Amino acid sequence: MNGTFSFFFHSPFKIVSQHLALRFVAFLLISRGNSEAVTMEYENKLVLAPMVRVGTLPFRLLAADYGADITYAEEIIDHKMIKCERVVNEYIGSTDFVEKGTDNVVFRTCNQEKNRCKDVAAVDINMGCPKSFSVSGGMGAALLTKPDLIHDILTTLRRNMDTPVTCKIRLLKSSQDTVELARRIEKTGVSALAVHGRKVADRPRDPAKWNEIADIVSALSIPVIANGDVFEYDDFERIKVATGASAVMVARGALWNASIFSPKGKIHWEDVKREYVRKSILWDNDVKSTKHTLKEMITHYSCLELPEGKALIKSENLADLAKVYGEEEYFRLVSDNRFSLNGH
Q1: CB hemisphere CA count around 280 (13 angstroms)
Q2: Catalytic residue among 84, 110, 117, 129
Q3: Could you report the per-residue pLDDT of 130-150, keeping only the tens digit for each?
Q4: What's the CA gap between 229 and 239, in Å, rounded?
Q5: What φ, ψ does residue 2 adopt, rounded to 5°?
Q6: Among 19, 84, 262, 302, which is most buried by a count of CB atoms within 10 Å?
Q7: What is the number of H-type helices and E-type strands within the chain?
Q8: Is 117 marked active-site?
């Protein structure tokens, strides 16, 4: 989100909230370029949803390659981001935000993530995650019951940033309650509102309430991004027609097979999986995040008790994963190239 490590958000975040969960919108097809304030275009866009331990650089690039117009990074706690320093990683060609005093990369981007302004295209505030970690810290869905705090957070960010600000919510107890909250959010000046068509108590297997998303779309003038029950490419158009939303966001459908974004249809998940492994090697992805994402893919289509799953679980680094997926030669080529680029 910055070019010289002068984060726009370090001061307002401290003022507004002790704990705030944010996501960077890392990839955008249409903007005004890196030298000016970014503007966001949402009409007819396909969006990769924010997913913890999944939305790292390799997966974002994977989704973009298959056709995603906008990709969200994973959730990052504001205090962790404030403690980072911006490092140009010439070893792999990335820009990293590294936690001071550690080698922990909190956020990584690269020039392939198009049309960014100060490293990201926008900042999104998590106001819908129902998981205990978020809620117990006053983040995520805990904010849904605090409209005044939501207003303070968003207006403070809008006042202090030239990067677009958005947020993502869930449905409240009644459609009227959700519409009232959405209208209040719109008045803060956010660029768009993403809506997950489930309530906090709903389970993933419960059908998303597209009709209630439609109520929100009808009440607002800003773009609404519809999220929930998108598992095939045709679902993008189905939910868009049903809700009237400007854009459509997909989470699990993309996690299981990122080629869902391709209008040509999905390719076999085994091929998607191997391409993800190659991108993880190329961008030196954290092995824990890589394994987590691969496990999610495997458990949807197969099981971890088979040889592949057992080998995956035992893998301790990217070299081990390269062996599991027959990418030893690719791993060697990437390693040799880095070695030569660093003057050896």
Answers
A1: 29
A2: 129
A3: 888 788 788 899 999 999 999
A4: 9
A5: -145, 160
A6: 84
A7: 14, 12
A8: no
